[in-house]
Design goal:
The chain is of the alpha/beta class. It has a single domain (about 5-150), classed as Ribonuclease H-like superfamily/Ribonuclease H (Nucleotidyltransferase, domain 5, 2-Layer Sandwich), CATH 3.30.420. Helices cover about 45% and strands about 15% of the residues. The protein is built from eight helices and five strands, in the order H-E-E-H-E-H-H-E-E-H-H-H-H. The chain has helices spanning about 5-15, 55-70, 80-85, 90-100, 130-135, 135-160, 165-170, 175-185; strands at about 20-25, 35-40, 75-80, 110-115, 125-130. It is globular, with a radius of gyration of 17 Å.
């Protein structure tokens, strides 16, 4: 067990309320960045959570529903493509995380944040590189954020069917970039990103 994973268990043993915080969509060319703040009701859950990007879509969706059945709290926060273009992706990511934390019905004692960037908050914070792979609460946040954003991209795909957002989720695949070259950009593409 890594030191950071031990920290999560030690905090839980002190009866501190822990919120894991993670985001998805930073590298996408389209749409919002989505963050999740997640509080397990019981950290001793048998659910094995991990980095949402490291598992198959089927397993991710199964874990998503298992996580939702743990009687836990979570909140999603978004920063739109327009906000990303206005304040840059890093600041927009921190804004989405802040919104997710502020949306929680219960204020946590500490935030465990995936990565190395703290957010503006009066709540104690600990940043953990690759936290979604080693901390249960961050892993759960990662999965909930990913499944939620993917669902949003599926809906956006019906509005912009030429761009196949249901398969590329807005990321800069070769095919997506070819479609941009062929059809131009949509109103939800991030203009501050290199799109072709």
């Amino acid at each position: 067990m890594t030191q950071d994973a031990k920290v999560e268990e030690e905090l839980s043993a002190k009866n501190l309320v822990i919120a894991g915080v993670d985001e998805v969509g930073r590298g996408s060319l389209v749409g919002p960045v989505v963050a999740c703040a997640f509080i397990f009701h019981n950290l001793k859950t048998s659910i094995k959570v991990c980095d949402s990007k490291s598992i198959s879509k089927i397993k991710r969706i199964r874990l998503f529903y298992e996580i939702l059945q743990t009687n836990s709290l979570f909140s999603l926060g978004l920063a739109s493509h327009k906000e990303i273009d206005q304040i840059n992706i890093l600041n927009a990511t921190k804004l989405a995380m802040k919104r997710a934390v502020e949306g929680l019905r219960s204020k946590p004692d500490i935030l465990l944040i995936d990565g190395s960037n703290k957010i503006k908050s009066d709540i104690n914070q600990k940043c953990t590189i690759k936290g979604d792979s080693i901390c249960k609460s961050i892993g759960a946040a990662s999965i909930v954020a990913k499944v939620s954003r993917d669902s949003l991209m599926d809906k956006l795909s019906s509005l912009f069917p030429l761009y196949e957002f249901n398969t590329n989720k807005g990321y800069g695949t070769k095919k997506h970039k070819k479609l941009i070259s062929k059809y131009g950009i949509t109103p939800i593409h991030r203009k501050s990103f290199r799109l072709t």
